[in-house]
From TrEMBL:
Record's protein name: FAD-dependent oxidoreductase 2 FAD-binding domain-containing protein
Flavoprotein among keywords: yes
GO terms of biological process kind: steroid metabolic process
A GO molecular function held by the record: steroid dehydrogenase activity, acting on the CH-CH group of donors
Domain FAD-dependent oxidoreductase 2 FAD-binding, residue spans: 6-453
Keyword tags: FAD, Flavoprotein, Oxidoreductase
Spans traversing the lipid bilayer: none
Record carries keyword Acyltransferase: no
Cofactor requirement: FAD
Entries under Pfam families matching the protein: FAD_binding_2
Amino acid sequence: MDNNVDVIVIGSGAAGSAAALQAHADGASVVILEKSGRDAAGGNTRLSGSGWFVNQDPAAARTFLRSLNGSFTVADDVIDAWAENTQGLSDWLRSLGATVAMTGDFHSTAEYGELDGSSCYAGMDTIEGKMGNELLYRFLVSALAERDITTLFDTEATRLLTDESGAVTGVEIRSGEQTSQIHARRGVILATGGFEANPAMVRDYLRLENPKIWGSPSATGDGHRMAQAVGADLWHMNNMMTITGIPGDLENPTGFFLALWNAHNYVFLSREGRRFTDESTEMRHGHVFREGSYQHFPVQPMNIVFDETMRLAGQLSPGRDALPVGHMVLDEGYEWSSDNQAEIDKGWIVKADTLAELAGKLGLDPAVVETSVHRYNEACADGVDHSFGRNPETLAPVATAPFYAVSGPPLLGWSSGGPRRDGHSRVLDTAGSPIPGLYAAGAVSSTYSAAKDGGFHIADAFAFGRVAGAHAAARATAGD
């Protein structure tokens, strides 16, 4: 292959594919570098629900994004670009040949409907109106192939190349044992995903204690490292999405989504065995509203204690038929048992005949656990949770033996922070100036500094992938 192209894209998910498709449409020669093999490529795009929100009003969208960001502001030019370029994504995909329809099962309305600007949110579109199952990624692969855009799989980008002025001019790559270089006449676009699979970065920036991850094990912060090496500034590195999870096999870095959908006979207990929160508070893509603000939740290891009624109510972790999302479901093909018994047998769910016995197995004080559950059950009998204000409709006792617990850290869906960029997707240095020839889009540099709504990550990846591809394609060799 030609080691000189106009635009190099690193990463083959939604952002990378959008960038490559747009740059190609604008007349640039493009190559995509993907460190994973064909079957594992696509990052979290392949493993996610793969939907994008429908932005019906860019003016309202500007307000909505500012409302979601709160005091954690991003630059006005980024907000403007996001609001304008997240509109019309479904039409763009249809122009590429996609069959697009709205999903009726998920995110038909805004999660943050109480915030100013939420009227921009008109639901979530997906390929064929279906969630997950790799449908979006498979379409993007076909769209790239139809346009003869080359993706080099099993090819890791190890270093950005720069000239004497500091402009990015290419990428050093490693494929197998061979190291070589590819040069970019117009620009390099980072679309490498987040850093949730990099334990050191997770500890340093997210302050999480050894969480399991939901998505791609390849999200190891490669783009962050390469951007920093050429002087990039960073933004909102502490933002993320966590959800309730089940650790599963301790040797596997990925875990399972714990869906508390089928029954309400459960409580959240701290590592000391005490109830500490309203379990019914809506979890909105990693945030809950508590004490007057939107806060990350969950962020600490906890024990989710439940009874036989809930165990028999259905799968604690939805299978491929219900929610075809995540590494364990899509890549490892794990099918959770209908009655959760197989997972009890594996030891992933702790079982005991009494609460005191359960506490002992969890390493907790039996008296504390029994008191915590007893007080919760009293609230159920009274129909009022005086301690934490749990929704009365969800007050169902933990009273039918045997008793069970899922114990461990939260499940980390994705990180959001990365190289700071402007409204043209240009990566900025620590002085606020663009690094010539370097762009970023997608989870490597998500727009979202705080809360986000359903379908926002894919929309952001598409929007700024296209912005980056267009700007890079139009960039003269000696200019910005």
